[in-house]
Amino acid sequence: MAGDALVRLVAGCVLQYPGDYFHDELPRLRAALAGAPAEPARLLGAFLDEAERQTPIELCSQYTSTFDTRNRRCLYLTWWVDGDTRRRGLSLVRLKRIYRDFGLEFAGEELPDFLPVALEFAAREEEAGTELLQEHRAGLELLRLALTESGSPYARVLEAVCATLPGPSPETKAEAKALASSGPPQELVGAGSALEPFGPGLDMPAPAVNQRGPSAAPTDLPWPTTASAASVASERMPA
Predict the structure, then answer these.
(1) Domain boundaries in the chain?
(2) What's the CATH code, domain 4-178?
(3) Around 29, how many Cα atoms within 13 Å sit in the side-chain half-sphere?
């Protein structure tokens, strides 16, 4: 795995709640960036430098104060399109179906539109994952701009993610919103036929990021992630 996939995996790790063991993972995250494109690697490296200077408590506090809906800084992709409406339930079911179509069963505690989940998928299935992220490009860019406006170091992480997508990033919120004017695509490359509606929407919890309790120790994974509450690929589905 190399290039944009590594950028997405590292970004997905640092966009999860850092917990007590994040600092233990820093050497492996830095090592992974050695195979990433220069500019995204620089941006993510700068974030890791900033994170290393903070205590675990400080980093966790920064995370929970950064990502919320009140200040338009939300890590849940469908929130940017659907808000907290019943329509969002259909979008979440659709995402689970997309993961399953590629042999990945969603098994995380987070919702399937949680950005680290989408980034893991986009790293494992680069073509379809790129199209999925591009479908939500407006939300990603609006989040990037909101983080930049607030002076958050997490803005560098979103810059790195957006750098893996085709075309330049918009410079203003108006330009970012214009990305959504044509509407989302109806199917993903390689995902088979267009996804059909799945029935009435589901009542979903509000997507604000809440304080979590002490995290479990990281497990041994084939790629050096932190403890992956957001994993879409705990097991391959049988053929």
Answers:
(1) 4-178
(2) 1.10.3480
(3) 29
SS3 76: strand
**pTM score:** 0.74
Stretch 199-218: mean pLDDT: 32
Q: What is the pLDDT of residues 117-159, one digit of tens each?
A: 999 999 999 999 999 999 888 889 989 999 999 999 999 999 9
DSSP class of residue 4 equals H
Q: Report in angstroms the alpha-carbon separations of 22 from 17, 36, 56, 59, 142.
A: 9, 20, 8, 9, 26
* β-bridge mates for residue 76, sequence order: 114
pLDDT on residue 188: 35
pLDDT at position 70 is 72
* ∠ Cα 146 148 149 (to 5°): 65
- What is the distance, to the nearest Å, from the Cα of residue 65 to the centroid of all Cα atoms in its chain? 18
Say whether 236 sits in a helix, a strand or coil.
Answer: strand
Q: Which long-range contacts (CB under 8 A, 24 or more apart) does 50-54 make?
A: 50/153, 51/14, 51/18, 51/22, 51/23, 51/26, 51/153, 52/23, 52/26
